Amino acid sequence: MMSQVISAYRIKKIESIGEMTAVSQEDVVNHTRTIVQGLEALRNEHTTILAGLNTALEHSPTQAQQPVQNVPEKAGILQKSLDQIELGLSEAQIMLALASHLQTVEAEKQKQRAQVRRLCQENMWLRDELASTQLKLQASEQRVAQLEEDKKHLDFMASIRKYDADVQEGEAGHDQPAKEKQEETSTDYFPDDDGDERSSLKKSGDFGSQASLALSPTPPAQFAQQVSAGYEIPARLRTLHNLVIQYASQGRYEVAVPLCKQALEDLERTSGHDHPDVATMLNILALVYRDQNKYKEAANLLNDALAIRKKTLGDNHPAVAATLNNLAVLYGKRGKYKDAEPLCKRALEIREKVLGRDHPDVAKQLNNLALLCQNQGKYEEVERYYQRALEIYENKLGPDDSNVAKTKNNLASAYLKQGKYKEAEILYKQVLTRAHEKEFGAIDGDNKPIWQVAEEREENKNSGIDEKKNGSSSTGPYGEYGGWHKAAKVDSPTVNTTLKNLGALYRRQGKFEAAETLEDCAVRSKKELSEPMSAAVQARPSSPTRHHDDPRHQHSSTGIKKIFHAFGFQS
Question: How far apart are CA 223 and CA 475, in angstroms?
Fold first, then answer.
């Protein structure tokens, strides 16, 4: 009976294998798995029956000799069937492993085909680039030949001028003013980094107070960081990017804006709208518009750049975080703090995920988020964000980094708005003490920080002791607290701002003598820093007013076209 069952099962298996030859590989694998399950069930049944026969053989009674004699024969048959089942299971497992291997090979084959297609596309692109470069080389060689002819002509004209002294003097007199004009033009429009930073730190970097500074050009370093954060600018755009930054930092928007627009049109024509380079150029143009107070146009460009970067780089790319941060700052300048806060939090989340929770860029984002919350009166969150940013800066950059002092100033400002004067005073004193130690060494009885000198003058104002006249302070590290200019320069303008803030806090507490000491020191420091700059301005001839008859304005369109031809763009 058992042999008939096995034979029927084998016939069924052969028939199923014949059917599988006409089906797909996936169907073959599914049928094989089904057969494996059947064989395992059959194996378990055989094992159970064989165990029952062995048990019956061991405990069989003596009076039933005839049945017992058939048991060994049945057990042998069952054991042979069980061996054949094990063989079938092994063959099925081999078939499954072979199918898995074939799937892997097929996937690798498809991958190789995709790579071949990509390499073919890259090869075509390189051929196009090579042809374009060859055309540019030919044009450059023609230009060089033309310039060589022009040079020969100029050399000939110069040899003729040698015999005309009057003409030579006239040329020299004409060249000198032009050179002076060029020099004063190149320096007159660069912003004062110290003044810009000092203004931006006023009121702890409040977004509302910064909105009034939008007409001042963004410093080049800050502009470049806002544009390129998290995304490496391609070599083709790098020189153009630096040129736009230079014009924008000088306030020459009539050149920077057309330059950006023309580059943007060329990039969209050659690379398509959804390209990271297009997003970078949109970001640059948005920041130029932001400096011009064109907030609506800047917001539209930043949203477009954000969509492109999300699509091409992914939602969690540092460049996406940079664009979100720029958009949040723009909303903050417009007073839309509730709209800016989720953008800033999303930028923080990306930077924490990509860079780690203790990265300095995370601390910068925490500072921005704290400013937004401060303008909404969320002081509990403000303190938490500032304290975490402060911890990151101190652990990663050290206690002497300028960001530590700036963050302490911002946190102290938040304390002041809550009436926590003691906590704010402690932070201001920490900043001034650290600046003093950096310049004058460890603090002791003869080497006191400026705030301690101010408080001693406050205590002694009614005792008849005048430190300005008795000369006692002149023996210290700075005479009459004026030598603290050097320490103020260590972290200018943050230390100078701290002097003013602590002085204002002293006045609020009625400590007028101490307040005057700090304020006088801050004024002297500012005066000493500004005197060399004033002398340099007075030494130069007065800069010409930028009227419409300025040659730079008359030829700005022509200059832009020349710039684009130089970079390979089409104007």
Answer: 45
Cα–Cα distance measured from residue 158 to residue 110, given in angstroms and rounded to the nearest whole number: 70
Question: Exposed, middle or buried by CB within 10 Å (0-12, 13-18, 19+), for 294?
Answer: middle
What one-character-per-residue DSSP string does 158-202 give? HHHHTT-HHHHHHHHHHHHHHHHHHHHHHHHTS--HHHHHHHHHG
Q: How is residue 525 written in tokens?
A: 């420091």
Answer whether 0.85 is exceeded by the pTM. no
The pLDDT value given to residue 39: 85
CB 305 within 8 A of CB 323: yes
pLDDT digits (tens, 9 = 90+) for 516-540: 888 888 777 665 555 554 554 454 4
d(CA 267, CA 264): 5
Q: What is the dihedral of CA 75, 79, 80, 85, to 10 degrees?
A: 140
Average pLDDT, stretch 492-500?
Answer: 83
| Bridge partner residues of 444 (DSSP) | 447
Evaluate the CA torsion angle 214, 218, 222, 223 in order and state its sign.
Answer: positive
Q: pLDDT tens, 434-456? A: 888 888 888 887 888 888 888 88
- Whether residue 388 is predicted with pLDDT greater than 60 in this model: the reply is yes
CA-based nearest residue to 413, from 543, 502, 488:
502
Taking the C-alpha atoms of residue 494 and residue 525, their distance in angstroms, rounded to an integer, is 12
Which tens digits make up the pLDDT trace of 221-261? 565 555 555 556 666 667 777 777 888 888 888 888 888 88
Strand partners, 447: 444
Residue entry with tokens 């002092």: 405
Cα–Cα nearest to 235, from 119, 124, 129, 123: 129
Local structure of 518: helix, strand or coil:
helix
- In the prediction, which pLDDT does 302 show? 95
Burial 418-448 (b: 16+ CB within 10 A, else e): eeeeeebbebbbbbbbbbbbebbeeeeeeeb
- Mean predicted confidence (pLDDT) in 542-555: 42
Supply the pLDDT for residue 37: 87
Q: Which long-range contacts (CB under 8 A, 24 or more apart) does 506-513 make?
A: 506/454, 506/458, 508/421, 509/421, 511/455, 511/458, 512/458, 513/454, 513/457, 513/458, 513/461
How many residues are given for the chain? 571
Segment (H or E) for 224? helix 220-228
Please write the tens of the pLDDT for every residue from 127-164. Answer: 999 999 999 999 999 999 999 888 887 876 676 665 44
Distances, alpha carbon 133 to alpha carbons 121, 129, 272, 566, in Å: 18, 6, 21, 13
Average pLDDT, the chain: 75
Residue 461 CA to residue 480 CA, distance in Å, equals 15
Q: What angle do CA 236, 241, 242 make, to 5 degrees?
A: 115
Closest CA to 341 of 356, 353, 329, 354: 329
**Neighbouring C-alpha atoms within 13 Å toward the C-beta of 411:** 26
The span from the CA of 400 to the CA of 434, in Å, is 7
Dihedral sign from CA coordinates of 19, 25, 27, 33: positive
